[in-house]
Design goal:
The complex is a heterodimer of chains A (126) and B (626).
Chain A: E1 3-7, H1 11-23, E2 27-31, H2 34-39, E3 48-52, H3 60-70, E4 75-80, E5 84-85, E6 88-89, H4 90-96, E7 101-104, H5 109-125
Parallel strand pairs in A: 1-2, 1-3, 3-4, 4-7
Antiparallel strand pairs in A: 5-6
Chain B: H1 2-17, E1 21-26, E2 31-34, H2 36-42, H3 46-49, H4 54-58, H5 60-75, E3 80-88, E4 92-104, E5 110-119, H6 121-143, E6 147-151, E7 157-160, H7 162-167, H8 173-176, H9 190-201, E8 203-212, E9 218-229, E10 235-244, H10 246-292, H11 298-323, E11 332-335, H12 336-348, E12 355-360, E13 367-370, H13 372-390, E14 395-405, H14 406-409, E15 421-428, H15 436-439, H16 459-469, E16 473-479, E17 483-491, E18 507-512, H17 516-526, E19 531-536, H18 541-550, E20 555-559, H19 567-577, E21 583-587, H20 592-600, E22 604-609, H21 614-625
Parallel strand pairs in B: 12-14, 18-19, 18-20, 20-21, 21-22
Antiparallel strand pairs in B: 1-2, 1-5, 3-4, 4-5, 6-7, 6-10, 8-9, 9-10, 11-13, 14-15, 15-17, 16-17
The chains are: A alpha/beta (126), B alpha+beta (626).
């Protein structure tokens, strides 16, 4: 099954995402901040990353840039609970930096999973 | 004889060397004798004066007008003294003091007079200069914007300038002269304390002190004192400079409030961010739970309630994020008066009959850079608040728009001006008003004057966030039981919207639904068809719908199970905005009756009944857009 990396500093939310993805038979990898996600990134088994944006150590924007660089074909979904840099929101910045989809918290987990499946299916076709 | 001759020589010497012009004049106004000083002044020798008349020497006109009457007076037995200016050949026009003294022979008859003329030109000029200097100083002191007063060592006012009278709202100087400065101090012993400090160090600037003015109003003042002492070291008088610092105090308070809001904003924004994580967790688990449960079961309904509560909480965190300016506004160049007119029209349709709405909106157009939805929200919220405050007693809401020059408003604003022109909007009500102590706090989140349960207390803080994000400012003044006025300053934007990007020729479809899932499916279905889909399903429905419809989309699809947007509202919006956009209505099979009104309104071009396939929708869209 495809591997999904969850990068989220909120433990409960990370846990919830993990459980919901395991229910759908995904292989789940976890990281509690951006720095860990980058250091322990395993390109061969990670097909998609769901990343929070505002996190301690390295933030999600750095994760997006770095992981894209390490594995250009990776699918990225950014999730955020607010936050703004200059005139644009973090989420829009994430999109500009190459996130395939963005969700603001709280989001519908079914929407998120539908998006994950869609992104991974598209990848298999291409 | 020799002695006498010598004595005469000495007296001649004295007379001739006097600095005054000395002469003896007979009754025929003829000079009988003159001294050397006289001759020097006229640059003549003695012989050419003696035997001449005064008219010959000074000019006949001068003699008739200025000299003769004085001489006649002297011949009547009086000593005459006066000041006059005469032309002298040596020095031109100069001021003289003239003294005529009668000289009498033994019989008592006055036959001659002694004329003494002193040159007082220099004295007179320096006197004149001193007077002018004093006048200049008086003028300076009168026009000084700082109150100035001089007191005797007891504190009794000897003199006060205009500025002091103005600060103290006194009619004239007389009314406070001889009053004690002490009587302006509302707190007993305060004046004495300051005076003691002055005795110690002579000059002192005191901190802010409240003085009670002639109308009994307390004015915050900044006072400096200067104690003057005489030769023995005893105080001779005290000067005070008094500055009205009410404005300074008000600005300081406003700045403090602004900083406080900034701090609360950062704090609340952080909390909202963390809170969204928690909400995402709750929402995720309840969705999973919902999937596991039988549809329409009792447990499933309870989970739906959890999901409903999450939505409610999300709306609050969204508002907090808007207040703390962490929500992106989609700004465009927009006419303030258009948005204001729309909002007023919207508000007017639903106000109680005891409330009047008056508006003055000039024809002159002014554009600002703003998110129309947010701007609508600002106006709507301010008007709704105003109306609520007048609900019981009735009243008038006056809404005014004016375009003002930046340089005229810079004193009003806390921040520096950012534009040449500002739009100033005032929302004035005649409602309940506020206690002065509350005014400073109304923009704080969760601060509310209403009963618990009536509103979240976020409205004004959200508005504050939106306006601040636009680089504008919102100010308020209020009087308990009289009403409140909100002033909104928005910088006028002269810039044109950035159209550098390629022009978007994709057809815009506005999809209104209460069901997020349906809209998601539709968006997936239409994603690669070249249509741009905007869907609205959140709680700020009506405002958003209005703003988006006003953007003139090419098509509106209205899914009628939307609980928040009533069909009547939609028709109302279409009519108000005078929009002819085609609309596709999708309803449940048992809903025909409800939608009848909508169908007859002439807006609906097509009507589909659920369940509808994506193909059906695509076809309907194609037909409508042809």
């Amino acid at each position: 099954m495809p591997g999904v990396l969850i990068v989220e500093d909120d433990k409960e939310l990370r846990e919830m995402l993990k459980i919901s993805l395991i229910r759908r038979k995904f292989t789940v990898l976890e990281a509690a901040n951006g720095k860990d996600a980058i250091i322990h990134f395993k390109p061969s088994i990670t097909d998609l990353v769901v990343t929070d944006l505002i996190m301690p150590e390295e933030d999600g924007l750095k994760v997006i840039m770095k992981l894209r660089e390490l594995k250009p074909s990776i699918r990225i979904i950014a999730i955020s609970g607010g936050g703004k840099a200059g005139p644009g929101s973090y989420l829009n910045l994430a999109k500009a930096l190459g996130a395939d989809a963005i969700y603001s918290k709280p989001f519908s987990i079914n929407d998120l999973i539908a998006k994950i499946e869609e992104l991974l299916n598209n990848e298999q076709h291409t | 004889m020799r002695f006498l001759a010598k004595e005469k020589d000495i007296s001649d010497q004295i007379i001739n060397n006097s600095r005054s012009m000395i002469s003896i004049i007979d009754r025929n106004y003829i000079y009988e004798k003159v001294n050397t000083t006289f001759c020097d002044a006229h640059q003549v020798v003695i012989d050419s004066i003696v035997g001449k008349s005064l008219g010959d020497v000074w000019g006949h006109e001068t003699f008739q007008n200025m000299i003769k009457s004085n001489i006649d007076l002297c011949f009547s037995g009086k000593t005459v003294k006066y000041e006059a200016s005469f032309n002298t050949p040596q020095l031109g026009k100069r001021y003289f003091e003239v003294v005529f003294r009668p000289l009498s022979v033994e019989t008592g008859e006055i036959t001659h007079l002694l004329a003494e003329t002193f040159d007082i030109n220099d004295l007179r000029l320096s006197k004149q200069a001193a007077i002018e200097k004093e006048e200049e100083f008086r003028k300076f002191e009168t026009n000084l914007p700082i109150g100035f007063l001089r007191c005797d060592p007891e504190g009794k006012i000897l003199h006060a300038n205009k500025a002091f009278l103005k600060i103290m709202e006194c009619h004239d100087e007389v009314s406070i002269t001889n009053m004690s400065l002490r009587s302006f101090y509302p707190e007993e012993g305060f004046f004495e304390m300051q005076y003691d400090q002055l005795l110690e160090c002579n000059t002192k600037t005191f901190g802010r002190v409240s003085l009670k003015n002639c109308r009994g109003k307390e004015i915050p003042c900044r006072i400096s004192g200067f104690l003057a002492v005489d030769e023995s070291g005893a105080p001779s008088f005290v000067d005070f400079a008094v500055e009205d610092s009410s404005r300074e105090l008000m600005l300081e308070n406003r700045l403090l409030q602004a900083q406080k809001l900034e701090t609360i904003g950062a704090l609340a924004g952080g909390i909202a961010h963390d809170f969204n994580n928690i909400l995402a967790t709750i929402s995720g688990y309840s969705e999973m739970l919902q999937d596991d449960l039988l549809k329409h079961s009792a447990l499933s309904e309870k989970v739906s309630k959890i999901q409903g509560a999450v939505l409610k909480a999300q709306s609050i965190t969204n508002q907090i994020l808007t207040f703390s300016r962490q929500v992106e506004q989609e700004k465009i160049l927009i006419s303030v008066s258009e948005v204001l007119k729309e909002t007023i029209g919207f508000v007017k349709s639903a106000i109680p009959s005891n409330i009047m709405v008056k508006s003055r909106i000039p024809k002159k157009n002014a554009n600002v850079f703003a998110d129309p939805t947010q701007l609508f929200r600002v106006f709507l919220n301010l008007m709704t608040n105003a109306i609520q405050s007048m609900e019981e007693e009735g009243g008038t809401l006056s809404v005014n728009l004016a375009v003002v020059e930046g340089k005229f408003v810079q004193h009003e604003l806390n921040k520096g001006i950012v534009a040449d022109e500002y739009v100033l909007l005032t929302f004035k009500d005649t409602g309940k008003g506020m206690e002065p102590s509350l005014i400073g706090r109304i923009f704080e989140p969760f601060f509310t004057t209403r009963e618990v349960g009536e509103g979240t207390g976020l409205g004004l803080s959200v508005i504050h966030g939106i306006i601040t994000e636009m680089e504008g400012e919102i100010l308020v003044s209020s009087k308990k039981e009289k009403g409140s006025v909100f002033y909104v300053y928005l910088p006028v934007s002269k810039a044109y919207p950035d159209l550098s990007g390629k022009e978007d020729k994709r057809k815009k479809i506005l999809f209104i639904t209460g069901n997020k899932y349906e809209s998601r499916i539709l968006s997936l279905a239409l994603e690669n068809t070249g249509y741009e889909l905007i869907y609205i399903s959140d709680r700020r429905h009506l405002i958003k719908v209005m703003a988006y419809i006003n953007e003139r989309p090419d098509l509106v699809i209205y899914m009628s199970d939307s609980k928040q947007i009533q069909p009547e509202d939609l028709v109302g919006i279409f009519h108000r905005l005078n929009i002819n956009t085609p609309c596709i209505l999708i309803t449940d099979p048992n809903q025909e009756l409800l939608e009848e009104k909508l169908l007859n309104s002439g807006i609906i071009k097509q009507h589909l009944i659920k369940p509808v396939s994506l193909k059906e929708i695509r076809n309907a869209i194609q037909i409508s857009l042809k």
